């Protein structure tokens, strides 16, 4: 069969979570950096498609290509690690502690940030001919989107912060289902299809993703968007990270773990 049953892929989720926790620091940073680079380029492809066609849905259709590539290469997004790593702790795997889980999250997240910032600067050079011309239509779109999702939230105060947090919850529900989707199939084509669907949903609905935002907002600032690092952190990145943790764990991986690993007794057994 080309499909792994839920009980099987949930076991894989636990094993993968443990493996990531026990991965060395150098590899966590390297895999995180490459994931940040690839996902950032996928954002550029998506925004370019949106500008060229005038149809936002086209951008959502092409964006998952980056997620599929980085997943098949074995690179790591901190959003996926948010959902997978704690499962090994729930299973009391040897050598797994909350401290090592946080270490894993931190190094992968740092790698994602490094990769995202590298691409942000290089794409800014590409879009402005090494800052010799005014931002083109694609660059203007980046400025507009990054401003709307920082200053726009800031202008709403607590309501904007909560909105960003909720969108981040939904985002990582979909992203972690995309990560798990790659474990449900045995063929490359099957893995791509299973990953593509939830990632399309998150991008189409403009949910908030930690790593995407590590690229999108620094690029906006480099291109001249009128907001600063404090606004980005307080009204986007911080609520996005918190929401992604909640969405990845409480809405994605823990329900799968509870119903397919820690199953309750069947009615026939009573």
UniProtKB/TrEMBL annotation:
It is a multi-pass membrane protein. Coiled coil: none annotated. Keywords: Membrane, Transmembrane, Transmembrane helix. Gene3D superfamilies: Glycerol uptake facilitator protein. InterPro entries: Aquaporin-like, For/NO2_transpt. Pfam families: Form_Nir_trans. The chain crosses the membrane at residues 28-51, 57-84, 105-127, 160-180, 192-217, 237-258. The keyword Membrane applies. It is found in: Membrane. Belongs to the FNT transporter (TC 1.A.16) family. This is Formate transporter. It comes from Psychromonas marina.
């Amino acid at each position: 069969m080309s499909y792994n049953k839920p009980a099987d892929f949930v076991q894989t989720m636990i094993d993968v979570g443990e493996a990531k926790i026990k991965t060395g620091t150098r590899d966590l940073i390297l895999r995180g950096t490459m994931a940040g680079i690839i996902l950032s380029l996928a954002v550029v492809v998506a925004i370019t498609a949106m500008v060229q066609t005038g149809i936002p849905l086209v951008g959502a259709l092409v964006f998952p290509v980056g997620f599929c590539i980085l997943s098949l290469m074995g690179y790591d997004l901190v959003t996926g690690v948010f959902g997978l790593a704690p499962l090994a702790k729930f299973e009391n795997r040897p050598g797994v502690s909350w401290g090592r889980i946080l270490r894993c999250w931190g190094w992968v997240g740092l790698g994602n940030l490094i990769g995202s910032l590298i691409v942000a600067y290089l794409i800014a050079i590409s879009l402005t001919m090494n800052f010799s011309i005014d931002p083109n239509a694609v660059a203007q779109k980046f400025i507009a989107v990054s401003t709307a999702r920082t200053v726009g939230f800031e202008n709403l105060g607590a309501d904007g912060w909560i909105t960003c947090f909720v969108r981040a919850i939904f985002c990582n529900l979909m992203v972690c289902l995309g990560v798990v989707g790659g474990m449900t199939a045995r063929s490359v084509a099957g893995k791509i299809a299973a990953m593509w669907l939830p990632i399309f949903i998150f991008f189409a609905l403009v949910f908030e993703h930690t790593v995407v935002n590590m690229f999108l907002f620094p690029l906006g600032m480099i291109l001249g968007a009128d907001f600063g690092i404090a606004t980005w952190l307080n009204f986007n990145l911080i609520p996005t990270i918190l929401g992604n943790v909640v969405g990845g764990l409480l809405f994605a991986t823990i329900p799968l773990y509870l119903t397919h690993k820690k199953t309750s007794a069947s009615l026939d057994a009573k």
